[in-house]
Amino acid sequence: MLKFLKGVVGSAAGGIKDLPYSIGDPYAASWGSWTHCQGTSKEDNSPVSIFSFTASGAQDGRLAPARNGVKRLRTVRHPNVLSFLHSTEVEGMEGKITIYVVTEPVMPLAEKIKDMGLIDTQRDEYFAWGLHQVSKAVSFLNNDCKLVHGNVCLSAVVVTPALDWKLHAFDVLAEFDGANPEASGPMLQYEWLVGSQYKSLEFAKADWALIRKSPQYALDAWGLGCLIYELFSNTNLAKTEDLRNTAPIPKNLLPDYQRLLSSQPSRRLNPSKLIENSDFFQNKLVETIQFMEVLNLKDSVEKDSFFRKLSTLVEQLPRQIVLKKILPMVASALEFGSAAAPALTPFLKMGAWLSQDELTSKVVPTIVKLFASTDRAIRASLLQNIDQYGNAFPSQLLDEQVFPHLATGFSDTSALLRELTLKSMLILAPKVLWPSQPQANTTMW
């Protein structure tokens, strides 16, 4: 880390020297005064996100909360919180101070939703999965860490390439101080950064005594209600009164939405209860991903039943989420042995929806590893479906890593494997790098 800091701090003129990341195009929007740009690592060209904030000087009131946000993001670790990689400050000309924060690659939720173009049931299923993830992050902050985010809303959520939702924008985040309800002064030191449209009644009135007496999740429960409104209304919240318009909210989410936005802080719904009890989360997409996340805890009968149904199920789920989220999860399960032969059928079915290049990069590496398996059921399934992926093998990869394992099938004790191995050569033979034949000696004596 010290080496990184020395490399990025510029000269007296305030330039960025030897920053090990290239800053790309900015996204259209970000939270607060931050700018969110695409970026890449100069070391291996891997993608990242780079957030930057520029203060006019050391006395700029926004500088302290920005530093708070960086510190909090660095120290709070959770699967549904944006993953921090690096940060640094650079002093520029005229005393300007710029903070750079490097994170895993993400894009703003609003932009990703627009790009995906989901509608109707598929949109609601994806929103349910995303809200489930954000609610878990908020519950972790509130119930486990006794922290208050303070500004949960659409712009505080970003999306990974695997289409997972991550919570960030921690500038306002602070410890919940419920032990001293009569204390003067705000509990959230930087509450002035929060837009008035996102503030509950007690927050808008700066009634800190009431806030301290309320449950630690009360402010962020309200924020989850604001996020839900912005998602389903497809617009940024303009004023608090707009939250009363419940027409866009799905009927099976409406009771929870109303409890999150209760006028009485003590009656608001704990995010943990939202996760556990909401009917809105009971859908095929959420249940499928949740099953995959705890696959190691399932017995073989449950796994086989799940994977036999998955081939049909993936046809009903949003195609983008199937390919970017579920396909990699099934690939990982096959590679590490937590899934058996029945998982190959849906895996190859999903792989057939990829382009040829994507098939080679996302499916073939798993297939190569599976050819080394001693499980006859897996070997048989691979050979029976060779027509779905055989042409995607680069010749050298096939020759060096696949054919030595495949060739053992010619002498296997199982007649079925011998037959399937022989039939597979109809597809693979043209791609195998056969040894060059010696030329005949034509020398005339």
UniProtKB/TrEMBL annotation:
The record places domain Protein kinase at 1-281
Q: Which residues cross the membrane?
A: none
PANTHER family linked: N-TERMINAL KINASE-LIKE PROTEIN (PTHR12984:SF3), SCY1-RELATED S/T PROTEIN KINASE-LIKE (PTHR12984)
Protein's organism: Selaginella moellendorffii (Spikemoss)
State the Gene Ontology terms under molecular function. Answer: ATP binding; protein kinase activity
Top-rank taxon of the source lineage equals Eukaryota
Q: Which InterPro entries does the protein's record reference?
A: ARM-like, ARM-type_fold, CIK-Related_Protein, Kinase-like_dom_sf, Prot_kinase_dom
UniProt protein name: Protein kinase domain-containing protein
